[in-house]
Design a protein that fits this description.
Layout: E1 13-18, H1 27-36, E2 40-45, H2 55-62, E3 71-72, E4 75-76, H3 79-85, E5 88-94, H4 96-104, H5 110-117, E6 122-126, H6 130-134, H7 136-147, E7 151-152, E8 156-159, E9 165-169, H8 173-184, E10 194-199, E11 204-207, E12 210-212, H9 219-230, E13 234-239, E14 251-255, H10 259-269, E15 275-278, E16 285-287, E17 306-308, H11 312-319, E18 325-332, H12 336-346, E19 351-356, E20 368-369, E21 371-375, E22 381-382, E23 386-387, H13 388-408
Helix pairs in contact: 1-2, 1-8, 3-5, 4-7, 9-13
The structure holds cytidine-5'-triphosphate.
Residues 198, 259, 278, 280, 282, 284, 309, 311-313, 328-331, 343 line the site of cytidine-5'-triphosphate (CTP).
């Protein structure tokens, strides 16, 4: 369960940038919620936004003047000062046009100038019609703004101004306030990040009743998914056949059976993920042919021809882009550190979580694990035998360090 402390907004200085979308009519309510939570809110708006909500409403609820232009007659509105003043900037609603400007560094109004000058975290709450939202240009722009490190407040699904129903609605003011509050709540450092996690075994069918599988229960991967969600990340878990399930309903779970299913789901989610943790014990081989009918034992012996499955971790490693953190697991029985270091390199991962089957209490089925974090630079970090929950926390701590160091470079 996510516990968000609204008091985390107390005393925070927030710049709210309102752009031209019908959802702008909800912004006085957003300002009221932020102010009620103790924030000091300064509102900026684009010329198009003024058609949907009046500056007077927004200045009344924020108790601050609303700024629309780089200069208001005789006064120059110092965008650099505003950018430095803010602890957070929220662009809500962010129209398709403003999104394109933020994604491409266009600076033709005060909102864009403050955005480019801001040194604080920026939260973007897109709002547009579904067809605009689904257009490849918008998708690219979303990837870009995410890549710059902005926090995205997911759009909702429902009635749109066009009369159509679908994706593209701005998140409700309560959800936007909760999102920003979560960011400032201790231990919610992953708010706004999207994570993809795989867990469990895969089953490769031989015939309708038999399969090749392994003893993985998925407990470790599920614990990682829950630890990421507890820090505020938006988590999609791709889970192989196991009876284990995440306790937290903040983890979106997609059930799969085979290595091919797992690859397909991961390939769909990875392009928009910031973090991917491949903890599933994926079959390396599958039967070349799957019999449609049950195979009878009418032969004295039989051979099963196997072919390689797609290595999802390696495939994602090939398309990984700047800003994405990719973590693999390795279960080894000998030459553990060398094998893990080799896997790190070969699969273009940022970290390999190494388990050794030689360690008592580690591996399939146990509630404990003894892991070693194998890193590109530094490490390895050998951790003691601990609960899978604590091991998951340690993995997430290390992911944060990796991302922090990368950003700082
Ligand atoms: N993995 C994957 N897809 C596969 C096989 C493995 O995504 N088809 C991922 C696992 O989830 C894990 C990592 O790759 O994160 C290590 O898997 P492993 O099978 O141990 O690695 P291999 O490179 O196949 O090496 P080995 O020769 O030890 O089997």
């Amino acid at each position: 369960m996510r516990i968000i402390q609204m008091k985390s907004l107390s005393g925070k200085k927030i710049v709210l940038a309102v752009t031209g979308s019908i959802a702008a009519y909800k912004t006085p309510q957003l300002v009221r919620l932020l102010v009620k939570a103790g924030a000091d809110v300064k509102v900026l708006m684009t010329a198009a936004a003024a058609g949907f909500v009046t500056p007077l409403s927004l200045s009344t609820v924020s108790k601050n003047a609303v700024l629309a232009d780089v200069s208001d007659g005789a006064t120059w509105n110092n965008h650099v000062e505003l950018g430095l003043w803010a602890d957070a900037m929220i662009v809500a609603p962010c129209s398709a046009n403003s999104l394109a400007k933020l994604a491409n560094g266009i600076c033709d109004n005060l909102v864009c100038a403050v955005y480019l000058s801001a040194r604080c975290p920026v939260f973007i709450a897109p709002a547009m019609d579904e067809d605009m939202w689904l257009h490849p240009a918008t998708k690219w722009n979303m990837i870009k703004v995410r890549q710059y490190g902005n926090h995205i407040i997911p759009v909702g699904n429902g009635e749109l101004a066009s009369g159509l129903t679908g994706e593209g609605r701005m998140a409700e003011p309560e959800a936007i306030t909760a999102h920003v509050a979560a960011f400032f709540t201790e231990n919610k450092q992953m708010t706004g990040l999207r994570a993809l996690v795989t867990a469990g075994p895969t089953f490769e069918r031989i015939d309708p009743v038999r399969f090749i599988g392994n003893f993985s229960t998925g407990k470790m991967g599920i614990a990682v998914a829950e630890a990421l969600a507890a820090r505020g990340a938006q988590v999609t878990l791709i889970l192989g056949p196991t009876s284990e399930r995440p306790q937290s309903n903040a983890v979106k779970t997609i059930l799969v059976e085979s290595a091919a299913d797992l690859y397909r789901e991961c390939a769909a989610v990875f392009p928009i993920a910031d973090i991917a943790v491949m903890a599933a014990a994926v079959a390396d081989y599958r039967p070349q042919l799957k019999a449609d009918e049950k195979i009878k034992k009418d032969r004295a012996d039989m051979q099963l021809a196997l072919v390689k499955t797609t290595d999802t971790l390696a495939a994602l490693g090939k398309i990984k882009r700047a800003g994405q953190t990719l973590i693999g697991f390795a279960l080894e029985t000998n030459n553990e550190l060398d094998n893990a270091a080799d896997k790190l390199e070969r699969k273009n991962a940022d970290m390999i979580v190494l388990n050794s089957l030689r360690d008592a209490g580690a591996g399939f089925g146990y509630d404990t694990n003894k892991i070693t974090l194998v890193l590109k630079n530094g490490g390895p970090v050998a951790l003691p035998l601990q609960s899978k929950k604590d091991a998951a926390e340690a993995i997430v701590d290390q992911i944060l360090k990796l991302r922090y160091v990368e950003e700082a470079v």
